[in-house]
Amino acid sequence: MYTQALNARDAVAQPLSAEETAKSAAFQARVDDEQRIEPNDWMPEAYRRTLVRQISQHAHSEIVGMLPEGNWITRAPSLKRKAALLAKVQDEGGHGLYLYAAAETLGVSREEVVDQLLSGKAKYSSIFNYPTLTWADIGAIGWLVDGAAIMNQIPLCRCSYGPYARAMIRICKEESFHQRQGYEIMLTLSAGTAEQKALAQDALNRWWWPCLMMFGPPDGESQHSDASTRWKIKRFSNDQLRQKFVDATVPQAHFLGLTPPDPELAFDEASGHWRFGEIDWEEFRQVLAGNGPCNRDRLRVRRKAHADGAWVREAALAFAEKRRARKADAEKQAA
Ligand SMILES: [Fe+2]
Ligand SMILES: [Fe+2]
Predict the structure, then answer these.
(1) Ligand 1 centroid to 213 CA: how many Å?
(2) Which of 117, 139, 304, 314 could cross-link with 60 by S-S, CB 3.0 to 4.6 Å?
(3) Any idea which ligand is nearest the CA of 167?
(4) Burial profile 63-89: b = 16 or more Cβ within 10 angstroms, e = fewer
């Protein structure tokens, strides 16, 4: 999962020197030509900063995204469900690692970006601040949250920055498995007892609107999208992606015999799109500001996991130091 169009506030162009202007023009020409920008290539500072923020926020979202679902691993209803959920949660951890590695190619350290998450300075996707109350939530997350992530991430496979684009190719393949396992849980519940179907409907009711918020603020309010679009980091606007998601998902809900919780949802024959009601942007702002149902709990759990892992980092460093010293000794004796 999950970039969220948490657009960069400080990616504002600074005045450039003549040399930088020329480099900048050459850079833009390469981007326009669909060439990939690689770590050692010259890039505008604002491009680098925008990518560091976007990729690190994306990595944080993967890692925090493990928490709501990890919560259900011990309570999965069968061995098969447990194995699939375990694999999915491990995939999300792997996505976080590829993305932290991609961010490091831009000159930031892992420690720095992790510290920004733990100190509450960095954002992650708002969706993970909602609780997973029943098993049906695991189905709804796979179907809707991973489904929304796929909409967002498929265009990122063509992002101008090579390491990010390549990481996204593998991530998208795994996300599509996540989406299917979630939808299959929803299919099973919807075809089950009245009580199971009610659980599935309740999960859809609670996850639908927060999933629409995952695409970020409406285009009119979205800052700095212009630069991201010009640099070919972003290929579609927030509203375009949200519409694609709604168009793809409403028929899937109907196939399950479920109803998205929006009385204004209606198919518009003329445009071929599903029209939907107003999103509660105040709720979105509150969740991003740290006041969602689970924000504090998510950070508390992450901080504890980081502190509990300190001995692993210390042991790895001590081992690396021991190997370095042994190698230096061996080289000295050989000389
Ligand atoms: Fe993921
Ligand atoms: Fe996923």
Answers:
(1) 17
(2) 117
(3) 1
(4) bbbbbbbbbbbeebeeeebeebbeebb
Ligand 1 centroid – CA 168 distance (Å) = 9
Q: Is the pTM of this model over 0.85?
A: yes
Instruction: Give residue 91's region: left, alpha or beta (phi > 0; psi -120 to 50).
Output: alpha
Q: What is the DSSP string of 8-31?
A: -SS-PPPP--HHHHHHHHHHHHHH
Residue pLDDT, tens place only, 285-333: 999 999 999 999 999 999 999 999 999 999 999 999 999 999 999 999 9
In 3D space, the residue among 119, 122, 178 whose CA is nearest the CA of residue 147 turns out to be: 178
Question: If you measure from the C-alpha of residue 2 to the centroid of ligand 1, how many angstroms do you get, rounded to a whole number?
Answer: 7
Return the ligand number nearest the Cα of 62: 1
**Residue type at position 67:** L
Question: Which ligand lies nearest the alpha carbon of 88?
Answer: 2
Q: How far is the CA of 150 from the centre of ligand 2 (A)?
A: 8
Contacts of 112 (CB under 8 A, 6+ apart): none
- Beta-bridge mates of residue 161: 37
Residue at token pair 């948490």? 6
CA gap 200, 138 in Å, rounded: 10
Quote the Cα angle for 283-286-288, to 5°: 110
Biggest distance spanned by C-alpha atoms of the chain: 81
d(CA 180, CA 125): 21
What are the tens digits of pLDDT across the range 57-108? 999 999 999 999 999 999 999 999 999 999 999 999 999 999 999 999 999 9
Question: Other C-beta atoms within 10 Å of 222: how many?
Answer: 19
Please tell me the distance between residue 64's alpha carbon and the centre of ligand 2 in angstroms.
12
SS3 content of the chain, % helix, strand, coil (to 5): 70, 0, 30
Give the distance (Å) from ligand 2 centre to CA of residue 142.
7
